[in-house]
Amino acid sequence: MNSQTAERKCLNCGEPLKGRIDKKFCDDQCRNNYNNAQKATTTNLIRNINNALKKNRMILQGFIPEGENLGKTTKDRLLRAGFQFKYFTHTYENKKGNQYFYCYDFGYLELDSDWYLVVKGKES
Questions:
Q1: Burial class of residue 53, CB neighbours in 10 A (0-12, 13-18, 19+)
Q2: pLDDT for res 69
Q3: Most Cβ neighbours (<10 Å): which of 5, 50, 57, 80?
Q4: For residues 106 and 102, what is the distance between their CA atoms, to the nearest angstrom?
Q5: What distance in Å separates the CA atoms of residue 42 and residue 34, rounded to the nearest whole number?
Q6: How far is CA 79 from the centre of its chain?
Q7: CB atoms near residue 12 (< 10 Å)
Q8: Each residue of 53-76: pLDDT tens digit?
Q9: Could you please report the per-residue DSSP string of 81-116?
Q10: Cα(first)–Cα(last) distance of the chain, in Å?
């Protein structure tokens, strides 16, 4: 059994482990560092997508005049403002078959000639 404990090393820093046979880390700091490193890639991806969604929402909101629920803009204006069309939270298809893309409570509908209708969703 001593030969097994000598071979066990901390998953984070590689130091030899002493104590319980099922021990994986030498201390709490190594455990935290290891787990944080494992989650870092996924966390950064999610954070970047959430930031893009929030930015898209703010851009859409900016194209609707104060006190109104609708606005109109061009694709070029959206792109110049930094809008990323690949990020949206959900879609809605109305009875006519038009598909709206939403970033939280603000959405857009593609019209003719690169024009877009921007809408504020109704709050439930």
A1: middle
A2: 94
A3: 57
A4: 6
A5: 14
A6: 19
A7: 19
A8: 999 999 999 999 999 999 999 999
A9: TT--TT--SEEEE-TT--EEEEETTEEEEE-STTEE
A10: 64
